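Quick illustration, no need to memorize.
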Amino acid sequence: MSDTTPSQANTSRSRYDAAALIKFGKSLLTGARMPRERAADIAEILVEADLLGHDTHGLQLLPTYLQHIEAGQVKLEGEPITLSDHGAVVSWDGQRLPGPWLVLRAMEVATQKAKTYGSGTVTIGRSHHIACLAAYLKRTTDQGLVMLLLSSAPGGGSVAPYGGLRAVFSPSPLAIGFPTSDAPVLVDVSTSITTNGLTNRLRKQGKRLAQHWLIDENGVPSDDPAVLQPPHKGTILPLGGLDAGHKGYGLALLVEALTAGLAGHGRADPLEPLGASIFLQILDPEAFSGGEAFRRQMDWVAKACVDNPPRPGFERVRLPGQNGLLRRERQLREGVALEPSILPALTPWAEKLGVALPASL
């Protein structure tokens, strides 16, 4: 699902060549002393998020990443420390290394283990921020594999438990990608009803949310992102909102157990800004009922969904990730329609690091 709702979409946005945006992001990161391979991984994942339409978790994140590099809050060199390795299961201390680079390395390890054992699991504590979860999935589904990716941010609290007033959780997303005989299904959802990225963007633009997805410090429902900013102590509601937020609350606890719990680093530890605890698992259907049987079952379910008669207000039923993949194809052809605030936020960094801004198409 895109972070941009239809009412917020701007069809007049300037478009940029995706390869040029990747080169731009890589140049900024290498200018900030990030090793070239790692800079390329980060830039590719950020632009992939923009291609899919998750534009609060694409290049919008790069100014913050550059700030953290400048402040010494991201480790540029070195490797993760292996805390344990039990064949199909590995746990790493990420040492504050770049999140996208760590996840892509973990995917390589988990994929090899999945092809050996049927499943491969890597948990990572003390990673830096890993950006958009959906941006990783297609690399695995293209190989006929299933991928689960969950992330929590131990240093950030903006979501209260259902029925509570004070923040405990981050939006804590979870993602799954699996292949079908047609396009893959790519699910990426937060366990909160909205995200920090969207609320921050709308606050800066002086706009409000579509619904009362927040509560202020007194528990009064609100659509005003300002209630999340000091001196206020408002919070984002769990997925399900005012009526069914107990479901998002339960999912948030699931994410905490699989990420912080299994990685051994989380909210019980000292605060580290924009860090992440990660659970990554890759499954090979061939080791279970077989790839053909998996596709037969998932093809049936996918067809039953997309052939379902739409209810009033909906043109059709779509599968998760379907619109994102269509948007990706279009933007690879016609250029990435960047949200207008992104390049202005990166312009001071471009000037500082001597990097030319990408030209619009």
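The chain has two domains: 1-77+335-361, 80-193+237-319.
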